[in-house]
Write a structure and sequence with these properties.
Number of strands: 12
Structural class: alpha/beta
Helix content: 25-40%
Order of helices and strands: EHEHEHEHEHHEHEEHEHEHEEHH
Number of domains: 2
CATH superfamily of the largest domain: NAD(P)-binding Rossmann-like Domain
CATH architecture of the largest domain: 3-Layer(aba) Sandwich
CATH class of the largest domain: Alpha Beta
Largest sheet: 7 strands, parallel
Mean pLDDT: 96
Distance between the termini: 37 Å
CATH topology of the largest domain: Rossmann fold
Shape: elongated
C-alpha cells in the first residue's frame, strides 16, 4: 500500500519526525525550494511552523491535501477559512510552549529590574563597594504592578507566576475571564491597565483586528519608565510608535522577542536604540517545548488514518 506523502517545511525534532516517517512518506522541503510545487500537487499532509504561509494559492495547488499541521500554537500563518472550505483539517499544539514563554517573560523582567554582573577577577575594597552600589536595584517585583494584555493560556500563567512573587496584577482582555483563571488579577479597560502597570507584557494573537493594536495611543497611556515586553506576535506592535516612545522616554525599556518581519530588517526603526532590546524569537525556544510542538505529527497520522485528532483548530475557537 502506498504511503501518504507529508511535506515538512520547517524543522521538527528528530524523534517525532522519525516516528511519522515510519508511517508516511515524509519529505523535508521548504516552501521556497524548486521541488515544493511538484510535491505539493500530491501531498496528503503539510507540517509547518512559523514561517510557511499557507495561502489560498498554495491550497489551490494541493488537490489531495487533507491536513495542515502547525507545530506550534499560533495559526495566523494559515488561511483557516480556505482550509475549512476545502475540508482540510488544521491542527496545532495548544499549550506546548506555555511554560517556555512564561519563563522568558520573567527572565526579561529580571533582566530589566535586577542589574547584575559576574566577577572574573578579584576586586579591591573600593571597586567591590562601587560595584555593589552600581548594581542596587531601584525596584523589586512586589512593588511593581504587572499589566497583562491578553489573558489567554499564556497570559493566565504569567498571572499565576506573578502572584507567587506577590506582584499586583491587572489585565485587559476582550473576553470575560473566569475568576479561577485570573489568579487574583484585576480586569481593567485597556488604557487604565496600561496607565497602572509598571510592566506591560503582551499575549494576544496575530488576527487582523490586532494588527498594530499597540499603537502610539497605547504607548501614550503607559508610564514613562514602563518595562514593555512583547513575546506574542510582532505584527501587534507598531514599531515606529514603539521606537518613538522609547527615544522620548529613555527611562523606559522595551524587550521585543517577535517582530513584524523576521529576521529583523536593517531598516527596522527599533535598531540602535539603547533602551530597546530585540531577541530572535526565542521565547518558546526550550528543548521540551520544541519536542512537544513537534509531536503534532501524532495528530497528523490520526487524520490520515481516518481518526479524530486531539487538537483540531475549529471555527469559533480562534
Amino acid at each position: 500500500m502506498t504511503k501518504p506523502l507529508v511535506i515538512q517545511t520547517e524543522d521538527l525534532d528528530a524523534e517525532p519526525a522519525s516516528w511519522l516517517a515510519e508511517r508516511c512518506e515524509l519529505v523535508r522541503c521548504g516552501q521556497d525550494e524548486p521541488e515544493f510545487g511538484s510535491l505539493l500537487a500530491r501531498a496528503a499532509g503539510l507540517v509547518v511552523r512559523t514561517y510557511t504561509q499557507v495561502t489560498p494559492e498554495l491550497l489551490a495547488s494541493a488537490p489531495d491535501l487533507r491536513v495542515v499541521a502547525r507545530a506550534g500554537v499560533g495559526v495566523d500563518n494559515i488561511d483557516l477559512e480556505s482550509c475549512w472550505a476545502r475540508g482540510i483539517v488544521v491542527l496545532s499544539t495548544p499549550g506546548a510552549n506555555t511554560r517556555a514563554v512564561v519563563e522568558y517573560v520573567f527572565a526579561a523582567i529580571f533582566d530589566a529590574l535586577r542589574p547584575r554582573v559576574y566577577l572574573h577577577e578579584a576586586l579591591d575594597q573600593s571597586r567591590w563597594n562601587a560595584t555593589r552600589k552600581s548594581l542596587e536595584a531601584p525596584r523589586q517585583l512586589a512593588d511593581c504592578t504587572l499589566g497583562i494584555w491578553g489573558m489567554g493560556r499564556i497570559g493566565s500563567q504569567v498571572a499565576r507566576a506573578a502572584a507567587a512573587l506577590d506582584m499586583p496584577v491587572v489585565y485587559h482582555d476582550l473576553r470575560e475571564i473566569d475568576a479561577s483563571l485570573r489568579f487574583g488579577a484585576e480586569p481593567l479597560d485597556r488604557d487604565e491597565m496600561l496607565a497602572r502597570a509598571d510592566i506591560v507584557t503582551v499575549h494576544i494573537d496575530g488576527r487582523k483586528t490586532n494588527y498594530r493594536v499597540v499603537d502610539a495611543g497605547a504607548f501614550g497611556s503607559m508610564k514613562p519608565d514602563v518595562v514593555f515586553i512583547n513575546s506574542s506576535r510582532g505584527v501587534v506592535v507598531d514599531p515606529v510608535a514603539c521606537a518613538e516612545f522609547c527615544v522620548d522616554h529613555p527611562e523606559a525599556t522595551a524587550i521585543l522577542d517577535v517582530h513584524d518581519t523576521e529576521p529583523v530588517a536593517e531598516t527596522s526603526p527599533l535598531l540602535e536604540i539603547a533602551n530597546v532590546h530585540l531577541s530572535p524569537h526565542i521565547a518558546g525556544g526550550t528543548r521540551a517545548a520544541k519536542l512537544e510542538m513537534s509531536w503534532v505529527v501524532r495528530d497528523v497520522w490520526r487524520v490520515l488514518s481516518g481518526e479524530a485528532p486531539e487538537h483540531p483548530v475549529l471555527p469559533g475557537t480562534v
